[in-house]
Structures are given as structure tokens and as C-alpha cells.
Amino acid sequence: MRDLNIVLIFGSAPDVTAVKQWDLSFFTSCVAINNAWQVIPDWNYLIFPEDFPIDRRPQLPVDTHQKFITANEFVLHQNNFGGFIYAGGTMAFTAGYWALGALQPDIIAYIGCDMVYSTENGKTSHFYGSGSADPLRNDMTLQSLEAKSNRLMALANKENCAVLNMSSLPESRLTFPRLRNSDLQQSFSHEKLLSTQNHLIDAQKVSMALTAEKNLGYLVPSGRYWEKMKSFDPVKLRMIDDIWIDSFKQIEFSQLN
Fold first, then answer.
1. Confidence class for position 251, pLDDT limits 50, 70, 90
2. pTM of the full predicted structure?
């Protein structure tokens, strides 16, 4: 059996620090989003937007096996999967589409990207303390994080790639099936993961959503969609989100163990 191409994408949610205890050699590539490069030194790619402050980036030069992924790289791949308007303009999804196109993985595993920012009872919103809740900003491409999550999972499925959420947090805006890292590394089957994903998908709804996107024709090749925001109708985008919401069944954590 060929070696599987397994990509780990990690963000800044509090439980991302768990990766410090993981055997990272299991993953073909480790992709850090924004500040998450600070969690472990053994990342391969750091992906960040144009406005990510220079003083928050690693000092150059980084190790030879490490690379920055900027808009020069990820906009092309994002556009190949329909563009930011439909994919959702936040880095958790951008990282997924870039990885899907550039790295062509068999599995994408997320941790630290739950996009839940509760600070009740003294909890911190990010591993480094309090941070800005970028995915919750007023942006018509992010009216439904669950819809955008379903969309990424559906398009990954078309590439025979399973998408998982390895978060241990009780709440997540990601709709991907959950799997513990220990189970992924010890007892998983790629065929089973794909089969589970296929079982969740309503192929007719996926086709409807993609057709609606094509007919609407909202694409900004530069990736700077916010410069043309007045050209887009949030109601029409919400209607497409509603189709994506209905395109997947939900699955319990225990069903993948």
C-alpha cells in the first residue's frame, strides 16, 4: 500500500497545544495558520494573509524545510476551488483549499480551528491569550461557517480527500467528522474515512450548490473580494449557504472510533 499523504492544519484555539505531545512524523506536512507557528518548531508551511503583521511572523531565515505561504500562492488555489466569496474569507478555510490544491493530500486533519471564542469562566480564546475573532467579523462570505465547512468537505471529497477535526473542545464551528489523534495514528482506515464521508454527502445538494455558485458568477481573481463587496448580494449568498448546510448529515464522534 502506498504511503498516505496526511496534512495537519493547526490554528490558534486553546487546545492546539496538544500537538506538542504528538508524533508529528506521522504527518506528511504540518501547516500553521497565522500565530500558530509559535506552538511547535516543526511546521513545514506557515500560511497568513497580506495584513498579518510582520512582527508576528518568524524571524528570517527560517529552516530550509519551512516555507511561508502568502497570497501569491494561495489565491490561485482558492480560485481553482471557486474563490473566496463561496469558500469563506477566513484563513482556516483558505488553508484547507490551499493544501487541497498544492499538497494534494489523502487526509486533511484540523486542530485549533474551531472558531469558537468563548471567554466565560476565565477561559482564553486563543492559545496565547485573547485574540481577535476574525471569522466572526461582519463579512458576507462568512454568514455561515458551517456552510463553508461543508463546502470544503464536499470539494475535498471530489479529490478523494477525507477531512477531519481532531479538536478536543466540546464545541466547534467545523462540521468535519471528529477523530482523536491517537485513533488516527493507530487504528484508522483511509478507505473507511472516505466511505464515512461519502455516506454523509447528499450529492444532489452538492451539485445544486455548485451550479448556483456558477450561475451567480461571483469571482474576484485578485482574491481581494472586499474591494468589490458592494457588487455582491448577501441574500443570494445566504441561499447558497442554505444548500450547503443541507448537503451533509451530521455524525457523532463515537462513530469514527
1. low
2. 0.90
